[in-house]
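Exercise: predict the fold of this chain.
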Amino acid sequence: MENITVNILVHAPLAEVWKYWTEPSHILNWNQPSEDWHTSRVENDLRVGGSFLYVMEAKDGSGGFDFTGVYDVVDHHREISYTLTDGRTATNIFTQTETGTTITETFEPEKGQPAKDQELFCTAILECFKKYVEGLL
């Protein structure tokens, strides 16, 4: 299956976008695809070889999952790449523009799940991030 790439423009400076993307206290506030979900726990050791854990759960208790892996690249204000525990890889590129910061996320899709659903899920999380950050500024 081909990699999936999604991107979003956040109307905020790169340094702010990086901070909100990487600090656990902020991740708890934006890492969900909709108001029906939330992230209940975050651990983030943002360094090459460091690990991360985001526990995402449906607010009604009907389901949830752990999003976990190890960082392969951490290039401050530029790139974060990681390998998930199932072996899939992903990369986030942060680019300052005249009107804000573009985040481009490219990831290997999970086998057995429709690629379009995975793309929409990722896009929804990026939209929540954008709404959170722009609401703070």
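Check your answer against the key: The mean pLDDT is 97.
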